[in-house]
Specification:
Strands 2-1-3 form a 3-stranded antiparallel beta sheet. It is elongated and about 55 Å long. It has 4 helices and 3 strands. It has 106 residues and is of the alpha+beta class. Helix content is 36%, strand content 11%. Helix 1 packs antiparallel against helix 2 (22-31). Strand 1 (51-54) and strand 2 (60-63) form a beta hairpin.
Length: 106
């Protein structure tokens, strides 16, 4: 999470660092996701081998073929495959599809 989205929690983190309380700072960092390493999402189950796209509102679209799913979203046939490789199942951070998540159920 960005500090601008949770300014009070960010200030608590900075105060903990200034007070040399690194244990509390670490706890705040992990709790509010300031570490920025891992984003865990609850992904609904889709049939084995299907490609899936989940909107920021939680709507899931899936298809057996990535190219068909890409075309149904209005993009080139390689869009879904490219985004799965690029984001590794994490939400997109910018662009027209910001907040969307793409993955293949294996």
């Amino acid at each position: 999470m960005r500090a601008s989205k949770a300014p009070e929690q960010w200030n608590k983190l900075l105060e903990a660092v200034k007070a040399n309380d690194y244990e509390l700072a670490h706890k705040i960092c992990v709790t509010y996701g300031f570490d920025g390493r891992v984003v865990t999402l609850e992904k609904p189950e889709v049939p084995f081998g299907h490609y899936a796209a989940m909107s920021p509102e939680g709507e899931v679209i899936h298809n057996e073929f990535a190219s068909v799913l890409s075309r149904s979203l209005g993009f080139s046939s390689s869009y879904i495959t490219m985004k799965i490789r690029e984001t590794k199942g994490n939400p997109l951070k910018q662009g027209k599809m910001k907040g969307w998540v793409f993955w293949q159920e294996l």
